[in-house]
Amino acid sequence: MCDTFRLLKNIMGLWLVQECRREWARAGDTYDYGTLTNMAADAPAFGPIVDVDDSRFLAPGGMPDRICAYCRETGQAVPQSRGEIVRCALESLALRYRWVLEKLEEMMGRTLQTVHIIGGGMLMKIPRYGVLLTYVAVASLGLPGLAGFWGEFGAMWAAINPGRGLADSYQGLYLGLVVFAAIGTVLTAGYFLWMLQRVNLGHPTEKWAGAELDDVMRIEWVVWTPLLILVLALGVFPRLVFGVQDAAVTVLLRTMGG
Fold first, then answer.
1. Are 234 and 123 within one domain?
2. Which of 106, 120, 152, 252 could form a disulfide with 142 if both were Cys (CB 3.0 to 4.6 A apart)?
3. Is pLDDT above 70 for 114?
4. Total domain count, the chain
5. C-alpha to C-alpha distances, 249 to 145, 161, 165, 256, 258, nearest whole angstrom
6. pLDDT number for residue 105
7. Residue-wise pLDDT tens digits, 40-81
8. Helical packing angle, 127-140 and 147-160, nearest 10°
9. 150 and 233, same structural domain?
10. Contact indicator for 133, 120 with CB cutoff of 8 Å
11. Read out DSSP for the chain?
């Protein structure tokens, strides 16, 4: 005995997506996970959110209908397509991860520096899918050399140097917003890295260790590759976008007295 407590919080994994996939397969429509991801990517972002740990989602069968019913009962927009259902499940899971980590840190009174993950194993079972998830997640963190960096850096730099009229009256406010944004960026990076640990690393659970899972197919790479290259190109050569916007932004600044 080492006189310590083990703090454990179980969170639903990709069970909702897996059950939706099985339900649609029973109806005669079989999708691999790459196709489901593309369908979710095409669906509108920031839609309805479900509590992934709600007891109604624990049992197998009828998962798409249960997700829609939850949204209807809670007064949210009901997903209209299969892509919207998958996106709802994924965004709900991401939000749940963030909420649990914040509550654990609040309860313990300190920031968690290390998260030990049991399960995951995407890089072992479907490695191409795992690599694709890692690339997209890192790109969205706003790291230099990728497209997300210029969106975040440009917004914060503009707040540090607002137009003359704004700077005279609201300089302190804008600097405070920059600090707030920087803290948010760091926290977001932590959440994303934690998600990658949970999903990609480690060994699959016993339930999935022997399962046959479809990895990204060639036709999916054909669709994804131009987007992945564009993310890198815009990160290395931001003037591909900024150069097009310069004239309009200059006119806007002059109009506002900047």
1. yes
2. 152
3. no
4. 2
5. 23, 14, 16, 11, 10
6. 82
7. 988 988 889 999 888 888 888 899 999 999 999 999 999 999
8. 10
9. yes
10. no
11. --S----------THHHHHHHHHHHHTT----HHHHHHHHHHSPSS-----TT-GGGSSSS-HHHHHHHHHHHTTPPPP-SHHHHHHHHHHHHHHHHHHHHHHHHHHHTS--------S--HHHHSHHHHHHHHHHHHHHTT-TTSHHHHHHHHHHHHHHS--HHHHHHHHHHHHHHHHHHHHHHHHHHHHHHHHHHHHHSS---HHHHT-------HHHHHHHHHHHHHHHHHHH-THHHHHHHHHHHHHHHHHTT-
Instruction: Report the chain's mean pLDDT, rounded to a whole number.
Output: 79
Compute how many other C-beta atoms are within 10 angstroms of the C-beta atom of residue 133.
Answer: 18
Read off the pLDDT band of 1 (50, 70, 90).
very low
Residues 156 and 207 in one domain: yes
Q: Do 130 and 49 sit in the same domain of this protein?
A: no
Summarised one tens digit per residue, pLDDT across range 243-255 is 777 777 778 767 7
Residue 49 belongs to domain spanning: 1-113
- pLDDT value at position 206? 60
Q: Report the residue count for the chain.
A: 258
Q: How far apart, in whole angstroms, are the C-alpha atoms of residue 111 and residue 113?
A: 6
Residue corresponding to tokens 């003359």: 164
- Alpha-carbon span 178 to 155, nearest angstrom: 9
Residue 117 has pLDDT above 60, yes or no: no
Whether 85 and 126 map to the same domain: the answer is: no
**Of residues 41, 9, 31, the one with CA closest to residue 133:** 41
138 — pLDDT class (breaks 50, 70, 90) = confident
Tokens matching residue 175: 């600097």
